[in-house]
Amino acid sequence: xxxAQPRAPSVADLHxxxxxxxxxxxxxxxAGPDDRGAMSLPPxxxxxxxxxxxxxxxxxxxGQPQTVPADTLRxxxxxxxxxxxxxxxxxxxxxxLHAFGxxxxxxxxxxxxxxxxxxxxxxxxAGPARLTLEDGRGxxxxxxxxxxxxxxxxxxxxxxxxRIEHDGVQTVVAVAPQRAWTLDDACADAPGERWWGLxxxxxxxxxxxxxxxxxxxxxxxxxxxxxxxxxxxxxALAVSPAHALFAADPARCSPYSPSSRxxxxxxxxxxxxxxxxxxxxEAKRLAGVAELAxxxxxAQLIDWPGVAxxxxxxxxxxxxxxxxxxxxxxxARAAADQPLxxxxxxFLDDGGxxxxxxACFEAxxxxxxxxxxxxxxxxxxxxAEYRDPASPAVAEFARANxxxxxxxxxxxxxxxxxxxxxxAAARGAGMGxxxxxxLAVGMDPxxxxxxxxxxxxxxGLSVGAPPDLLNPLGQAWGLATYSPAALAASGYRAFIDMLxxxxxxxxxxxxxxxxxxxxxxxxxxxxxxxxxQMPFDDLLRLVVLxxxxxxxxxxxxxxxxxxxxxxxxxxDHGIAGMKVLWFERETAQDGGGFADPERWPRGAVAxxxxxxxxxxxxxxxxxxxxxxxxxxxxxxADIERQRAERAIDRTLITEPxxxxxxxxxxxxxxxxxxxxxRSGCALxxxxxxxxxxxxxxxxxxxxVDEHPNWRRRLPVSCGSLLDTPDAAARLNVLTAxxxxxxxxxxxxxxxPSATQPxxxxxxxxxRQAELPK
Length: 773
Hints:
GO terms for molecular function: 4-alpha-glucanotransferase activity. InterPro entries: GH (IPR017853), Glyco_hydro_77 (IPR003385). Keywords: Carbohydrate metabolism, Glycosyltransferase, Transferase. By secondary structure, this protein is an alpha/beta fold. The protein has 25 helices and 25 strands. The chain has a domain at 183-619 and 664-753: Glycosidases (TIM Barrel). Helices cover 37% and strands 15% of the residues. The strands form 6 sheets. An 8-stranded parallel β-sheet has the order 22-19-16-11-10-25-24-23.
């Protein structure tokens, strides 16, 4: 379905008002302007849903229109703050919604360079105004009132966070460049070339002599891989999410179910990068974890509770032996450690209250797990007085447990040092991009991010996916997300801070489920679900602006079915899509085979596979089908059909065709590396598992304990990853294919220096500037 206009006034027309329920939505609506498409629903209920940004209809995986059940709509509306269980309450909610009218003030509006700035606002907001650019230059202008409750000022020619003031009221005007920072910008010294990169699961890496903490991957091992890959010509190193999980509950190890996307997973920190190996070894001995560490290193699968015991025990010993934490500041116990204390203090000053709040959450989470038992999941299980981060009870806990909170601040400092060091290693080894971080689509509803931002988070709803061919009941991922209206009312502060955190120590980000910038499938506890529209234009422009400020390329995970026009809109903004070998097929009219990779667009990223898909060797051998059969996912007839289809696909994808699956671990990998290498995409990324010819994948969607998700380790150390005979041979295939043909840059690719003289210098100056207060 497509967005439709005109439509009745809705929350989509509002930016902020003090009485606006936090769950209401913003943005263009998915469904049409009337109730003809939802004949089975009460018209007033369908209309209220649309006005709140909920689509009463959706198109399923078979291309058929589906209507959201009335009870599901009522549950979703209730979570958004609008009760709808009776016709009278539907009418009351509709009256309350439309009584808001036009907002008196929008804290932040967005635009693109060269385009007029247009936003919803009250006509009283029109008149003489003063525009102050981020660099301090000011201009007089006029805010013009347009029909329908819109306001407008002329185009602003410089990207940045500017201010416009009228009648004593200020609004931030976030002006984005026409395009995000792209690979051609990052690798400007070699225009038009085709590059390659490596993708690794951070947990899977094995340390070498550089690091000291063992049993699972970490930032020291990541730096090692970055150096080796960069020296061999890689321009990028894509990494699984490094988001903060739950230090006190390490068995919750999925990087895509984070406690907070703004902070880091402290189990990836390697104190040896800061304190040196000898000092860490001594701390490990004094903490009594040296023997356990040796057992963990010998294991084939990661024991996350054991890893946490070793790493946190060692790091606690270092913290207590090095610092005294008092009045919110670390003091060095020895003069020789004062430079470390100074660096730690600078980190605390930079993180401010949000960092302190996260550390307080970690301390509270550990405290209540000890007090209430291991089934304590998140902050919803805590006593009521601790569920509000601004409560007196939380403040008193922080005062009484200052040293413990200091320990969690210390862990974040160690992790930040490690990640920054890995990016420095990547760039120092010659990578034009370096690390590409991964941004999860949501957060754990009981975690630090949801606790810290309760006013802008939707509670009681799970992000997921509608029913499809593989999941006929749909999916609920157990993740929370931001409320569109509350996010806009707050000036998108939490969203911007999250982007900056992921981009800060990387040369790019991959946005998981990039469809979520436009709409998200949300499910209430009783099941079902519907799409909630997001403020797409605002979110997309903010991504582009932060991309330029941080010199970070942006990749959008756009696999599967996406709304019409989404890929085109992302490409128009310089955001790269993803082309995975197995998914790129010809149309049925063209034979249904695998598409010629040389026709894949330059503005996308070519991949052999992803963490959620079978490896090259696993796909060839049908290992993913084996797992589905073992776990009872699908009927015997389904499994038989999948095996028959895979046999046909093996024939279609091979050159020459008709290769047999038996004993061909290397030839399929060579084929895959050659096809991805020959693609027209500017960047081709291969998985470490494919480089090594491994059969098992990192994660099997739809499973929790049935498959060892996020626990598999690579069989070689980070220093040997690219040097095994098979890996070296496959890299040769890839690099030869990359060099075989040069592809010209995208037509019309935006050149900021050509269109905006002096813009490059301006962007350098404002790269890390904060939003206006």
